[in-house]
Amino acid sequence: MADVSTLIQQQIEQLSQEYRILQDQFRLLPSKVKKKDGESDEDLILQEEESRGNRIQGLLENLIQFALPPSKEVQLAEIQRDEKVRLAEIAKAEKNHQIVTAKDEKIRLAILANEGEDRKLKIANDEKIRLAELVKEEKIRLAELARKEKVQLCKLAQKEKIRLAELANESQQRQKDEKLTLAELAKDGKVRLEELKLDETRFVEGARKELDIRLAELEMPIKRLYATRDATIEDHKSSEKKILAILKHIELVTEMTHRFKGKASNENHNSSHGVESMGSPPDYGFSDIETIVQLVERLSNLLAHGKGSVDSTLTIKDREKTTTAAPVATESEEVAENETPGAKSTEFPDDTSEPSTPDECPEGLLGEVIRW
Q1: What are 179-227's pLDDT values in tens digits?
Q2: Can you state the percent helix, strand and coil of the chain, rounding each to 5?
Q3: By CB atoms within 10 Å of each CB, which of 2, 92, 292, 371 scores lowest?
Q4: At what angle do helices 289-305 and 72-272 cross, to 10 degrees?
Q5: Which residues, at least 6 apart from 47, have a Cβ–Cβ distance to it below 8 Å?
Q6: Distances (CA, A) of 88 to 14, 93, 97
Q7: Residue 278: CB partners within 8 Å, gap ≥ 6?
Q8: Farthest CA pair distance, the chain
């Protein structure tokens, strides 16, 4: 009960303090509250007194409640409140402990961090020192290797110089030998060239002499060939005249043959009707009409191709009449023809004679044969 009375006394003192504070606030209210539009000073005072009375009534109710003996509910509420206070104090103490612990942890972590930084710095310094020592050792090793490599290169260079000098000596010796060989070859070549020139000169002289002899041997046959050509041209002219005469004769014979055939048919017709015959056809020296036709064909081939001779187109009987005595070739001419290729088939055209044109050909069957 003592605790309860003490608690009530404390509540009363607290309420009295709040009451005094409220009085001071009420005393200051008229100066703070602003007057609204349409309100008088009396209305404002009434509002202030009403709010003051409500607050005093609340305080009195609280005093009456604390003055009465506490009930079980009040005691339970006080116990709960005490428990809340105790829990709050415990929580506060725990919080303070956590704060202190956190501060200690921060300090510890800071100390550890400082120690870690110091250790890292120490490790870094040790690593730098170790790397510097390694670099120094590597430089010393590389310098030693470079020195050994330089010595080895000097030895190789010296050996290479000796080898190049030997190669140069060998090359000079080879060049000397080649020069001597070339000189000997040039000497032999000159001798061989002189021999070839002499042989060529001898061959040319022998060939020239043989050619002169050959030309001298061919000179007479060539002269005879030119003479034979002139004679042959004259023979060709006379043969052309004979051919023209024969063609005219053939034309006349052909016309007479056609007339004879017509008369024969008429005589047969007349004899059948009691008419006497006109007599036999004249004899022109040919056996039958087929011989005339063959003669015309041979002459046509002769004029078309220009091959063979005039005598080959005639019969044996007519050839004996029309052929003339050709000059007999001597033994030297036959030899020249055998030695000269194509001498037999060589034709010597008559440059002085003008060829006959189609306008100069005669009319009739002879003209048609010549044009064809």
Answers
A1: 888 888 888 888 888 888 888 888 888 878 887 787 777 777 777 777 7
A2: 80, 0, 20
A3: 2
A4: 130
A5: none
A6: 21, 8, 14
A7: 263, 267
A8: 212
